[in-house]
Write a structure and sequence with these properties.
Helices cover about 35% and strands about 15% of the residues. Helix 5 links the parallel strand 5 and strand 6. The longest helix has 18 residues. The mean pLDDT is about 95.
Amino acid sequence: MIYLDYQATTPLAPEAREAMLPWLAGPESEAFANPHSPHKSGRRAAAAIEIARENVAALFPPGGRVVFTASATEALNLAIIGSAARTFAVSAIEHAAVFETARYQADSFEILPVDGEGLVDPDAPIPPGTDLVAVMQVNNEIGTIQSVSEIAARAHAAGALFLCDAVQAGGKLQPPENADLIALSAHKLHGPKGIGALWIREGIKLNPLIHGGGQEGGLRSGTLSPSLCAGFGVAASLALARQAQDAVHVEALWNAARAALPNFTLNGSAAHRWHGNLNLRSQGLDVSRLMSELRNIAFSAGSACASGSGKPSHVLKAIGLSENQARSSIRLGFGRYTRMSEVVEACALIAAAAADQ
């Protein structure tokens, strides 16, 4: 299997796996202790979590705190609902975790449009009275990189908080320096599934979604997993250490993939984009047939969270594509552990299968 679906999830880094294993020990070890217990074993587990928290915090700007959650979706829900915001301005290409949560919470819901390249105008007016503006740093479907710092400044000028979904950017790009709330997911940066994080700028007050034991500073009750936290922490440190190296590798893969698929049209900006995301379309392409014929290649027709819905991508429609163009689009995602030979082979197979349709 050639894996080209890095936007859906990334392979677990071997270093992260090794960091997790000691905390999955059986009764012969004390590593199974509850990190919220006051005894020696519990304090040892709690110390491992705090080390992981420091490592994850290094992915964010200074001047805030990290709250561990079960996912980026939970982190975004905590940010949106916990802020008690009622009026929202949200980019047209946000993930459903932002769109649906904001709609659920909203008295007023405004959409910030994107242009044909998938970019929000950083000078777009923020509606008066907006409580919270949400714009993702890197889009999960088309990879476009937004001018989040500029948009955050406009949000603040309008008296609004700024929330950034940085799931696809974490460990790859510098974080938005002036955001108020930033969400990450471990499994999008070679960490384990089942854990995410919300960064909260100092001075920002949130209400908890989950009540009970008062863990995570009272914002997220429930027993934390030392194993998941340790894996997230090591994955975060590794992402920072390898950031430049990974970017060079991804750029080479991007160039090879683009050269191998000359008859496909790029969706979204080529310049303002994370090049580990390649979203392409071909007129009349039957994507379902293509995926059926190429079962040894893992790629996507859009967001993994929306797969099976039968609806054309709201992201592709937002950049002006027709329903047929959206349905004839595929997404290839690659990164740290993708080999050049895999990209070359996969793209040759995709090109051949598309030409035969």
